[in-house]
Amino acid sequence: MDVMERVVIPERIDYVGKFTDLIRSHWKAKPNKNRPFSEILSSISLDWREKELMSEQILSVLFSTKFVSLLTESEIGSNKGFFSDASARLSFKFLPPVDEPNELRTHFDQLFCHKKDYQWVKAIPDHHWADFLSSLFKEVNPAIQRYIEKEVLNSILILAQRAATLGVDPEVASKIPKVDDLDSPFLGLNREVMLYVEKNLNSTVYSLPDRYDDYKHILVMISQCKSQISYIYRHKDIFGISLQLTYQVRQIEQYLKRLAQLLEILQTDDPNRQWLTITQLLKEFVYAENTKYSLRKHFSTNLQLLTFKVIENTSKTGEHYIASDKSAYWRLFGKALGGGVIVAFLCMNKTRLYFQHFPVFWEAFFYSMNYSIGFMLIHTLGFTIATKQPAMTASTIAANLSNNGENPNWLHKTTQLLIRLIRSQFISLIGNAVIAFPVAYALDWIYFRLMGYHIADPAKAIRLITELNIWESLALPHAALAGFYLMLSGLISGYYENKWIYNKYTLRIKKHRKLIRLFGQERLNRMTGYFERNFGGLAGNFFLGIFLGSTSAIGFTFGLPLDIRHITFASGNFGLAVGGLENNVSTDLWLNSIIGIAGIGFMNVIVSFGLSIAFALKSRNARPSEVKSLIGNLSWQFFHHGLAFFFPVKNPGEVNEELPEALPNRHL
């Protein structure tokens, strides 16, 4: 009896569906340690008749469906683009698309319909799956085998065409030398695959040696295409990166990988290797179908290259925020004093804006401009805001962790780097806080002598002091929110540095004819050089000001208790409050305010650094074991050489390799 004639449609659910339900139930039951889950597949008892019916059912589905959608899109995505793909995933989460009954992808999706099926499918080792599948499909009808091979060849052809289309796209081609001519490996790959597929489908005489030679040639072309993609990774610091480019690069990589897998299935003479490759595809498909509407997965997989580039920019900047010796340590203190002086003026200006009683929108606008202009001025003058340092230096730590394969002494060196970072942060915090208070107090005294009244009236002064009380206000949550903004501003700085490079603004401005006539070539070159070095920093500081200045207004609009607290502004505001109350501040208020300022600074740093290093570690794929080792070593150093965390003393085990000493004037 023919294989297809024995298949009865209702048996599809009875056997294959029950089989997956049985394994799924074992997974949910969490098998005991004496019987590992990896043995469940091989231990499930199926008699020869059940296996035969299951095999016939699966082959029946394969013989009556199209493979292309599953083989060319699953875990790869469509060519819609980053945002279009994200929008489609979001809409499908609420209103799934119509299932196509003639697509293999539909039947596959129905079989592995539970969202966590990929977990138990992945938990079963590859060789167990391979053994099971090989025993299930010992004999396959020649007609079905030819049909399957034809569908795989069609998929191979489509994968090669899509890879070639993306490979010569202007977004990609502009980053790879000589990729848009006839010698392009992407176009060459497409030509070779077309000949290979045509010979397999139409040629009656296609000898095994010729087929194997063509296969090897295709693998060479795939390797050349991968080399072109590697060029983009290696030279991203020269031309930058974008969302669209990262999306296209990832798709090309997935097309090439899937193409190689399908070719191996057709070409390998080793049945075990063939079934292992099929098993790998099975696991990829189940994971892809279970998570096909996941926005988190979409952003995580496609943004990694972009975030790596953004983090890399902040890493280069972060090296300048770490003092390596005593002279750099005290220079950092001086720059922190400069930043604190300017912040005292910002506190004064914001308090006077408060008394103008602007509408909510305009109050937020002027607050934001006050912050933004002040931060950009601090950046331009080469001063520092202490709590902004962690967002820039976290990626420097992550860079050391992710390079430990090339650096066997990474743990000791990274620990010493962290110690230098902590004491640099400490002296910057001290510099900001100790100067902001007396300068703000002096400004109030001068203002009172000139105007006859204080910058902050008694009611406002009491409110400023109350906002510092961590026991009776939301000072710490508001400080945590400020820490989040500080982290975000660091990423924005890296993003705009990358944007400047990616869009080639330096060359475009230097060659702009009207600007050359207006400024002259020499002056224009100096201007573009300055912005090339500082554009990211200025942008990050501008947006940080917007975040800090508008949060309170947004909270008021939505009825939420939103606000920000920053250690340097807290110190300056306390100086204005003491002046406004004409020194009539009790000892308890002094003590609570000092504790509050310290708590706000601590929360600013912890949140900013914690979020920044988490983001940096993820972008560089640092392992959790590395982080644990670093924390343990850092704790040991603190208990044995605690003074080094606050002052640059020479530790017995400290290495002599130092970072750049000073903070250049171009950095905040």
TrEMBL record:
Note the InterPro entries from the entry: Aquaporin-like, Site-sp_rcmbase
Q: Which membrane topology describes this protein?
A: Multi-pass membrane protein
* TM stretches of this protein: 328-348, 426-448, 475-496, 535-558, 589-617
Which key words are in the record?
Answer: Membrane, Transmembrane, Transmembrane helix
Among its keywords, does the record have Transmembrane? yes
Q: Where in the cell is it found?
A: Membrane
Keyword Iron-sulfur attributed: no
- Any single Gene Ontology cellular-component annotation: membrane
What coarse category fits the chief subcellular location reported for this protein? Answer: membrane
One Pfam match? SpecificRecomb
Where does the source fall among the domains of life?
Bacteria
Q: Protein name, please? A: Recombinase
